[in-house]
Amino acid sequence: MENGSCTTGDSKLDQAVRQWLLYDKNPKTVSMVQDLVKEGAVEALKKCFSSRMEFGTAGLRAPMGPGITCMNDLTIIQTTQGFCCYLEESIGNLKERGVVIGYDARAHPPSGGSSKRFACLAAAVFISRGVPVHLFSDITPTPFVVYWENGAQIVSPHDKGISKAIEENLEPWPDSWNTEEALKSPLLKDPYKDTHTQYFKAIQKHCHHRDINKSSEVKIVHTSVHGVGHTFVQSAFKAFDLHPPYAVEEQKDPDPEFPTIKYPNPEEGEGVLMLSFALAEREGAAIVLANDPDADRLAIAEKQKSDLWRVFSGNELGALLGWWMFRCWKQENSDAAAVKNLYMLSSTVSSKILRAIALKEGFHFEETLTGFKWMGNRARDLLDQGKTVVFAFEEAIGYMCSPSVLDKDGVSAAAIAGEMISFLATKNTSLSQQLTTIYEEYGYHISKNSYFICHDQDVIRSLFERLRNYSGEKESYPTECGRFSISAVRDLTTGYDSNQPSNKAVLPTSSSSQMITFTFSNGGVATMRTSGTEPKIKYYTELCAAPGNSDVKQLKKELDDLVDAIVENFFEPEKNKLQPKPE
User: Fold this and answer.
1) Is residue 24 part of a domain?
2) Is there a contact between 73 and 24 (Cβ–Cβ < 8 Å)?
3) pLDDT tens column, 144-190
4) Could you tell me if residue 29 is inside a domain?
């Protein structure tokens, strides 16, 4: 291959590769593409150049590697150029205010990509246009970096506007690669120290039991899972006057290779927590806290009387933290009328436990579409109307316990959980016991979530279309599933909702993703949806029992039967050749 010329037999692919080699200045990714061309690896090249990354539930997400489908120097420059142009059009005083850029510890040596490298390239793009950049001088948790100008993640129409601007600015500008000059520019500032101070000051508003925290003898283990969380959680505990948690030494420092675990996501449960359990056994601790690598999620496990560990689900932690946030708010607000101004939020695929608490306690509960971008923006709207938003959560172990960060935040959640655990210890109550108390007071909410893997878009489309035309007619959804009667259907792909007088859904709809929710006469709710980032069809099910119904064994069996019926009748895994979630 010479002078960037190549032939794969596919003219469109050839053109994409030629353009890539013309624009890319990273020798590692250039070499990777050239090697694929030399090897005649057409399928691999198609994977790299098939379609540009799209905005999913939380911005752009893709593996690091060469080509427009991956994260790499060139796609970061192209994305930032588009974003910069969009901001220039949208924000009048952009050159006074500037942008904030943060990064975590992830890296991909084969392609030369790293979070820090990408942050520096993004800074170079903005500085080349005279836009001031507040670039953190060290790794930070996601919650430290604000998003749109309202402090929440971007939602439509911004995502579409930015995507269009990216497509219009693919050729790197003259100084976009010049990180050396950018890092010397007077337009570059470091917000690390100030943000650090302000953040820990802000979360202290949610510390209500400092005396208990100071004297607490509760032992807590914390793992940052080779991510950025360690120093920040230590600081958060200090800000709450809690004894520092025992850190899992092998996972304490950032390591992009994640050497001690197969998959660095505490949502996966026990496998990620084995070293934490071992440390807890050695130190006599009964609680483990775990953050994901960028510290915006939080998992909690508790040792039971049986000596086995219980890893709480995201929905169970939502119940515990929601109960605690309301209790602390009530303690500070004696005015009975103030509760009418109070709001809690959760995503539509998360537990409805907050709805049950809200009904009994008199505050407002709202659900949003999946993803914290929706909860953050809704929280912002409510705050702007003078309302009080005390808590929001999603079942994927994401919690917003402080509206000073309009996103999930595993750092503040860790400290607030530490205080809750210390308070409960003064009552000789464990998290498991408190969860039971919550369910007995507000009604048991038992959930079961999983997914099937499917790489064939046609299969996914026909599966959902079958549910929309169940009796052969348009908008004829199923009225039963096995022995279970369906009382309502909401389809956020088409905008249909049988619960609304007009049959029109209240929540925003999107034809580009599949999502149908079935409500059952027995108090069951099931949502089937496609993932925005992975080849998965996910399902979320919950059985919501009325207060007083505490036959947990029977409720669990009822939910198991419901899930079996949904899988058999709606997914038809054998017929559709769906792969179940790996054990």
Assistant:
1) no
2) yes
3) 998 899 999 998 889 999 999 999 999 999 999 999 999 999 999 99
4) no
In this structure, what CATH number is given to the domain that contains residue 539?
3.30.310.50
Last residue of a domain, one of 394, 414, 442: 442
- Judge contact between 25 and 73, C-beta under 8 A: yes
CB 319 within 8 A of CB 355: no
Long-range (24+ apart) CB contacts under 8 A made by 577-581 are: 577/454, 577/456, 577/459, 578/452, 578/453, 578/454, 578/459, 578/537, 579/452, 579/453, 579/454, 580/450, 580/452, 580/453, 581/450, 581/451, 581/452, 581/453
Establish if 465 belongs to a structural domain: yes
Beta bridge partners of 346: 367, 393
User: 52-66, 231-245, 362-376, 435-449: which has the minimum mean pLDDT?
Assistant: 52-66
3-state class (DSSP) for residue 359:
helix
State how far the Cα of 213 lies from the Cα of 206, in Å rounded to an integer: 13
For residues 362 and 470, membership in a common domain is answered with no
Contact 42, 26 (CB under 8 A): no
pTM strictly above 0.85: yes
Q: Specify the amino acid at residue 422.
A: S
Domain of residue 231: give its range: 203-310
CB atoms within 10 A of CB 471: 8
CATH number for 180: 3.40.120.10
Q: Angle at the Cα of 26 (from 25 to 27), degrees rounded to 5?
A: 105
SS3 549: coil
How many structural domains is the chain composed of?
4
Give the span between the Cα atoms of 366 and 492, in whole angstroms. 16
Indicate whether 159 belongs to any domain: yes
